[in-house]
Amino acid sequence: MILDQIRIKNFRQYYGLQTIRFSKDKDKNVTVIHGDNGAGKTTFLNALLWGLYGKISLPRPGTLVSEKAEAELKEGDTVEMFVEIRFRDRVRNYTIMRNLTGTKQRGQFRTTQPSLTVTIIDEKGKTIEPKNPQNMIDEIMPREMSSYFFFDGERIDNLSKEAGAEDIKEAIKTIMGLKVLERTKEHLDDVRKIFSAEVKSAATGDLSILLSKQESQEEQIEDLEQKIVEIFKNRKAVVQEKEAIVAKLREAEESRVIQTERDRLEKDLTEIQKAIKDIDQNVKTLCSNQGYLAFARVILERTQSILEDKRQKGEIPVGIKQQFVEDLLERQLCICGIKLEPGSQHYNEVAAWLSQAGTKELEDKFTEVAAGIKVMSQYRIDLFSQLKTYRSQREKQLDHQQSIEEQLDEISSKLSDKDSETIRSLERRRQELDDNIRDCDVQEGKTREAVRNSEGKLDDIKKEVKKYEALEAKTALAKKRMEACQEARDIVAKIHEAAALKTKSNLQLRINEVYTHFLRKGYYAKLNDDYSLQIIKEFGETEKTVAMSQGERQITSLAFIGALVDIAREQYEKGKNKFFRGGIYPIVMDSPFGTLDPDHRARIAQGIPTLSHQVIILVTDSQWEGDVQKQIGSRIGTEYILVNYSPKSPRPSQYEYTDIREV
Amino acid sequence: MASKEVEVRELLQKASQEVRGIVEQAIDLEYAKIHMNNPKGIKEEITQLVRGVIK
Fold first, then answer.
1. Quick check: B19 and A484 CB within 8 A?
2. Which of A236, A539, A643, B37 has a CA that sits 20 to 30 A from residue A197's CA?
3. CB A130 within 8 A of CB A118
């Protein structure tokens, strides 16, 4: 972030529009703003903070609009107040505008809520207005870091007091990217818990129970199928015995004729049963192929009616063919002999027929649909007729079957009434075996039904197993994700640990490098484990902690900030570390020389221009003159003076206000 | 300090590509929201990230 300019209008004591252009020169990187006590140095620092974050740290923070501007308002008039900051960050140019308006109504002065807009011009010259401008500003210069870069020099010594250790720790964490790692660690832990809950919420059932149910169902089906085989075997044996008995009845003289008759009838019965079966099959096939015709009456009649209607109106088939119209237009001559010159009224009238003329394809389709309807209607009639025929054939066969069964019963009675005990007993046995065969058939039917039921149950179990397996896969996935989070979290924790150590040692080194610009020889600064800063004085081979004066604390704090800015800049320029990206930050200091003795003042003045790419100093003339001017003078890029007017100033004004003038 | 860095390197090498991806992308997400005191939705975004990486 390199500041370009600030425009202030009617902010606190800055009356009217005031502009400062900051020096961006690498060698003359210092902008000095001179101002006596009360001239508006601290207000200027606050204008920057208000512009960026909408916050100020001044007495009466609610009074933002210039007293003079407010006093000059007439009833119903409006005054505008704004702070506009322009800066460059990486390859983009930013303009931040925070403003509000004040109106005088019925003697009361009321202001609107401040509004913020940010305009970005990107590397391609495209203008962008971010939807959340405050977030965007915070991304470039986090609010919590602002106090380390825009600060009151007289209070900066707080950093090196013991109580400042926590502030330092936070600053280090924020600027050096440690906070990012801390948050990543915490959030990965939270996410791990989310996946852990997913694992726990998975079904508690046991797949093995389901699998054993599946196994038992499969065994049951096997048993039933085995039973069917046994029934079949049994039936076969019964049938064989029956055939042997029937053979005896066929051989015995007393029963031969009757048995022969029975054989014939049974053969007929078998044929009839086959015929009935065939009829049933034919009905099924017919319904399957043409059954839809039974329900097509309405649609066929409706389509036929629409086509007939169109035919009667002469819409289909169309009298004039498209090809005919195209030929006339091509020949440019109508059948009535009128010339058809393109663009003429006659030509256009004939051409208009193109949209109404029918095509050959349309006519073909019409014929096809009309013929199709006729065919389908006939098929429908045929379908009903065929079904009627099948029904009548079936009834006939059933009647025939009934008659044969009655004849067979009669034969059986005749044989049972025979004088011969042998014949009677053979017939009895034959009847018993017939019953047995029927029993076998019933049993087989029931067992097959049981198989079907068991197969249905088995299908349900298999579905459950599949569902459970999918659930298990889901649980396994949640577990895998949970473990990945844990591993990632542990890695981030290690990265954090290593980065914290490296940062601290790097900072220690840098603080002393910066410190040597500022402090007397033989002294160095130490960053303790708790991040508090100490000054150590070397006494020959030994060293001793020195109690810091306010000036020394100020120097130490500046050294610390300088070191932070330097490390962030170096990292930004290297751009290699993906975990700590760094950045360029300006330093804005309000009265940094206030409480220093002349020796410290000269040392700080010498070191200040090297603290950052861009340094802005707000200073009183008494602090500036002498050594400070001598040390910084050659590094000044731009210089301004704050001219204050008040009732007590040499040029008195009823209302206090400040003008900014370039020197 | 050097040993800590070695440990980190070893952990990253040992980790699967998926886990390395989670580490890097989670840090990227945090970086984008570091200015917010209590970033909303960051947990959901990391959860989605993990779901997307571990399929």
1. yes
2. B37
3. yes
